Amino acid sequence: METHTLETAGADLVYDVRGPLPTADGRPPLFMIGQPMDATGFAALAARFPERTVATYDPRGLGRSARKDGRDDHTPQTQADDVHAVIEALGAGPVELFASSGGAVTALAVVAKYPTDVVTLVAHEPPLITLTPDGPAAVRARAAVREAYEKRGWGAGMAAFVAMTSWEGEFTDAYFARPEADPAAFGLPTEDDGTREDPLLSDRSWAISGYRPDTDAIAAAPTRVVIAVGEESENVQTGRTSAAVAELLGQRATVFPSHHGGFCDGEFGYPGKPDEFAHRLRQVLDQASEATR
């Protein structure tokens, strides 16, 4: 693996490349992106594509990619510009793109703004909460996570986030009537360390979860777009958002093994099924490649 730093006006973007450029197999590079997950979250999945040239990166302000624009927010438009810059730096033509969570939102913005950058996009569980039928209630639930974080710290905020993302079905009065989530019940710290910089729990990433894709631009792009959903996620928020995004694009979500982090090993505390996930991703990418020939 080789690590590179791409200096841009707003950030120094650090990205990793596993394998040769140009690629040895004639396939496009396989680029994997997340948000707020950085490159470390894709180590298990990248290792399961030894035959491919795989690129990963840290979004600006996360991991190793230092910001110098004086901002702390995260927007799909800015992230899309960064992904475009990294794809150009790879110098290997359009890529195949696997994008997860907020990275899937960024990827949709990339396809809309830079339509020749991506041959095939597999957008895994984009958390576009305003697109679901209970969008206003989902926004209220998101605000409650921030409130818990601001009042009681990281452990309380993360407990509220886990409670929100594991709730099945629409956010009803029953959801909002529940007592505040107890961080100790999830093995999370109960003491407040005083920090309030987590992009997931603050409002810094609300521009991502509140984004609305440019469906006309995506439809006009030559990119083959696949919206993916984990089989364990279908009834929880990110599963429902995946179905909503797929419907918006005139398709049905393609089912993948496991859950929202199903491509990860156990290094983040909630192991997925990376072998099965990689097999499914390879299958989807191969089918898309054959369809474009």
Core attributes:
293 residues; alpha/beta; globular
Write the layout of secondary structure elements.
Elements: E1 2-7, E2 11-18, E3 30-33, H1 43-47, E4 54-57, E5 66-67, H2 76-90, E6 95-100, H3 102-113, E7 118-124, H4 135-152, H5 154-166, H6 173-176, H7 206-209, H8 215-220, E8 224-230, H9 237-248, E9 254-256, H10 274-291
Parallel strand pairs: 3-4, 3-6, 6-7, 7-8, 8-9
Antiparallel strand pairs: 1-2, 2-4, 2-5
Helix pairs in contact: 2-3, 4-5
Report the sheet-strand fraction: 15-25%
Assembly status: single chain
Radius of gyration: 18 Å
Poorly predicted regions are: none
What's the average pLDDT? 95
What series of H and E elements makes up the topology? EEEHEEHEHEHHHHHEHEH
Structural class given helices, strands, pairing?
Answer: alpha/beta
Describe the sheet with the most strands: 9 strands, mixed
End-to-end span in angstroms? 30 Å
What gross morphology would you assign? globular
Q: Give the helix proportion (percent range).
A: 25-40%
Strand runs, count? 9
Number of helices: 10
